[in-house]
Write a structure and sequence with these properties.
It is built from 3 helices and 3 strands; from the N terminus they run E-E-H-H-E-H. The chain is α+β, with helices and mostly antiparallel strands. It has a 3-stranded antiparallel β-sheet.
Length: 90
């Protein structure tokens, strides 16, 4: 059984209600995820520019990320359900 792993960025800054912006990458893979945590971490290590570029496009150049994580698909699904998010934006 194949596992799915996603790159997730936690953005710096916090809202007055205590929440933070979270960006879940649907790419770089054609099918949106990696098959192991090692594959995901190696991609993050070896490809910082496209990751940073995507975050700058989404949040602007003055918004740094706090951390980048490789998250198992079950935890991504759990987060989406808890946040009442029906699907990821494109």
């Amino acid at each position: 059984m194949l596992e799915g792993w996603f790159i997730v960025a936690i953005m710096a800054g916090i809202y007055s209600d205590g929440t933070k912006d979270v960006f879940i990458f649907k790419e770089p893979k054609e099918h949106g995820h990696f098959h192991s945590s090692v594959e995901c971490r190696e991609y993050v290590r070896d490809n910082p520019l496209p990751i940073v570029k995507a975050l700058v496009n989404q949040y602007g150049a003055n918004r740094p990320f706090e951390k980048l994580l490789c998250v198992h698909e079950k935890n991504v699904e759990k987060f989406l359900v808890e946040q009442n998010i029906k699907e990821l934006d494109t």
